[in-house]
Amino acid sequence: MKQSAKKSAKVTPVGGVSTPITAWHRREGADVLRECESPASGLFNPEAARRLTVNGPNQLKETKRIRAFQIFLRQFESLIIWILIFAGVASGLMGEAMDAFAILAIVVLNAVIGFYQEYSAEKSVATLRKMTAPQARVRRDGRIELIAATDVVVGDILALEAGDMVAADARLLDAHSLRCVESALTGEAAAVSKNPAVLPKLNTPLGDRANMVFVRTNVAAGEGHAVVVATAMRTELGHITGMITEAAAEEETPLQGKLDSFGRVLLWATLGIVALLFGLGLMRGTPTGELFLTSISLAVAAVPEGLPAVVTVALSLGVLRMARRHALIRKLAAVETLGSTSVICTDKTGTLTIGDMTARVLYVAGQHYDVTGDGYGPKGEVQLAGKPIDASHLIPLHELASILVGCNFSHIVEKDGVWKIIGDPTEGALLVAGIKAGRDQDRMNRDWPKQAEFPFDSDRKRGSIVRRAADGHSRVFVNGAPGPLLALCAQIYTGTGIRPLTAQDRAQLLAKTSSMATHALRVLGSAYRDLDVGSTNEHADTVERDLVFVGLTGMYDPPRPEAKTSIAACQAAGIRVVMITGDHPETAQAIAREIGLAAPTDLTVAGVDLDALSDDELRHRVPIIAVYARVTAEHKLRIVRALKSNGAVVAMTGDGINDAPAIKGADIGIAMGRTGAEVTKQAADMILTDDNFATILAAVEEGRGVYANIRKTLQYLLAGSTGELLFMATCVIIGMPTPLLPIHLLWINLVTDGFPALCLAADPIDSDVMKRPPRPRTERITNPRFIRTMIFTGVLTAGVTFAVYALALKTGTIAEARTSAFTVLVFAELLRSFGARSATKPLWRIAPFLNRHLLSVVALSFALQVWSQHNATLGRFLKTTPLSFADCFTLLALGAIPLVALEVAKVVRRMKRSGVSRFYLR
């Protein structure tokens, strides 16, 4: 058949399954072949080469690499950083080289710390090209050829068999016991049976498109042929990749927004005060040089130079603590964002569940047995009523186990201490159950060698293996769906032997199957038949009849042991948990209720129902939906955006490729480190190294603690700056000499305030931080209470310092007065750092030795301050005059006044809130 180049040019722009115009699953295979202009014998190589030239290679667009220089520049995006840079440059222009150097050094140090943290965690996201199968078997020129997956084009016919990774999205032409594992795309752990039958429904969910195979999925069993309908960015994976790019628009984190807002207020307030006082000085005839020096001093006093370093260090320490709790942070700001999380959208498979199919129930000879242990490891046992079984139960269990192990196309292997399944996950669960029930796969293969095998088929809904015993007779072992399997059975195995299968037996077994299914168990039946010597075993139909029904096996992907506790802890912390999964609604709802995520009245919505909702309708309904099932990557991203539009701070977790767009679009994206797809990890802000939902809760706790530390440190710094500014402004307004020089203010802000502030940022997390509700996204970091406390503290500090300065001016020189004011201000700030550890708890209720670094820093700062009064070199650097030890002690006592007043205010507030009697009882 000659292939027209003119006509075939129309083929590749057809968009594939990810394009809503074309629904390949609704068309007959022969029609798809005609539309793709591909003969049954496959494309001719010249035509395939032409299509490859026209449409390009079958590979995904590489994600843009983030360069190191870009990460470094990102550290200068904060407005506060630019205020500091301006202050440093202005100091240099005024000849204050030391001041300029100190300010600019802190800016550079902050940038270096932030760059190191982000660059060390940032990995190249150019891994998408690796996600295409390296090779593919295609039919060309009438024969099967092995080609590079990048050379696959629309119209190629793929030859699929067990172990293959699918190279492109394709429509099945034929399939023989074909099953594919599509968990990376759909999140469903079990292998999906495939067949070429037409699916007439237009909006068939991705996970239900049984006549399609998709790139990056794996063939678990069987074989088949499929015509390629989409390659590269037109595949489902390419569609998801495009959504990742769309969702990747950078949004500032809650902390970034709050700090930038604060920076703008600080900038205009500082400029306004400096301009007002500068104008007042000009009216009084003050020399311009002195006015500039005073203005620089005021600017230095107003700006908390240590704040950027404090924020960076607090976030960095949070990163280190989270790493110890199995959470790797890829962006510093993500630490604080976690603390403000109000909704966690979580995938089911591998996050809330262990991610491995596990047999939970065996039913044989009328007896119900429980199977312990999770995953594919052989650790576990069969129990009866919660107790180990005795010898009387071994015979029927061994009978069932022989079928579970004997009719199995999978095997388990141990790698690096982890048991994994080679083959179909469902068969893996049956195999492990058979091993726990007393049978050994190697011995079965040795004592009962295979004669014939008929893999699981979606039409037959069963699979079977014929084995030969040592005495020469053969037996067929069959596992399959209980209903169809019972129809082929004539007898039933009981504890006392084999007897005919009655209608009542069938009804009871089907009722048992339904009962197990209501608990989210996938149920398979097991049967066997002894074959006549010399009978033919060439066809399944000839051996899968007149069977002896033995028992049922119920299996599912069980919840993680800690999932229920973690969900309850999230709810206690005011965090709503929502399940978003590609699994079936019944299974998702059963798991959600088992772990306490959903109440009986909560809604479960399927992906097809979401398609019928507009974005606005979805936004109004998300508050009452607890479980989203059978959803695609696009649905997940819509859900995240709807939640965010309602003001929620959303964390999205997942491990599959289909989770990546929503992870990128969420406020905080969380990927699984062990089972997560590489592209999903690269889209995430945080990676869980233990794939444990409980780790998310620990990370939220750390995030809340980091924010609390940043907030109290900010209040400590701003209260100090407010006191300095009030003191300086008061002196300038009433015409007193400039009380503090820029070097004094810089020493206070960077050393006396800065180092204690760093210790406050590293304060241990408050024990009741998870008992508070999440902060609203709109909450300002400087709320009215924050501002009242800041002003009250500033007034106290400025009042004490002004009194000391005014008195010293009357009794001594201006240099001595500046030294006294400088010293009392330093003492007041250092002492106040102890009370700043809590905004509500009095000083005596805060364990002092939990923050030994603060004790050490305050002691060292006290020593330096006193030493500066008695060391000529340090005195010249700080421009201070000597003070006696008696004077230092007096100034220390005066400097304690703000701390005492603030602690009294805490006591009064607690008494008003709790009542006097209750307060003293505590």
Secondary structure layout:
Layout: H1 5-8, H2 29-35, H3 45-55, H4 68-74, H5 79-93, H6 97-121, E1 135-140, E2 143-148, E3 157-161, E4 169-181, H7 183-186, E5 192-193, E6 212-213, E7 218-230, H8 236-247, H9 254-284, H10 288-302, H11 307-324, E8 327-329, H12 333-339, E9 343-346, H13 348-352, E10 358-364, E11 367-371, E12 382-384, E13 387-388, H14 394-406, E14 411-415, E15 418-422, H15 425-436, H16 441-447, E16 450-457, E17 462-468, E18 474-480, H17 482-487, E19 489-494, E20 497-500, H18 503-517, E21 522-531, H19 540-543, E22 547-556, H20 563-572, E23 576-580, H21 585-594, E24 603-606, H22 607-611, H23 615-621, E25 625-629, H24 633-645, E26 650-654, H25 660-665, E27 668-672, H26 678-683, E28 686-688, H27 693-733, H28 742-752, H29 754-761, H30 784-811, H31 814-835, H32 852-868, H33 872-878, H34 885-895, H35 897-914, H36 916-921
Parallel strand pairs: 9-23, 9-26, 19-22, 23-25, 24-25, 26-27, 27-28
Antiparallel strand pairs: 1-2, 1-3, 3-7, 4-5, 4-6, 4-7, 8-28, 10-11, 10-22, 11-12, 12-13, 14-15, 16-17, 17-18, 18-21, 19-20, 21-22
Q: How much helix, percentage-wise, in residues?
A: 40-55%
Compute the number of helices: 36
Outline the low-pLDDT stretches. 1-21, 121-133, 916-922
Strand content: 15-25%
Structural class: alpha+beta
- What integer is the average pLDDT? 82
The coarse overall form would be elongated
Total number of beta strands = 28
How far is the first residue's CA from the last residue's CA?
A: 92 Å
Rounded Rg: 36 Å
Question: Mind describing the biggest β-sheet?
Answer: 11 strands, mixed
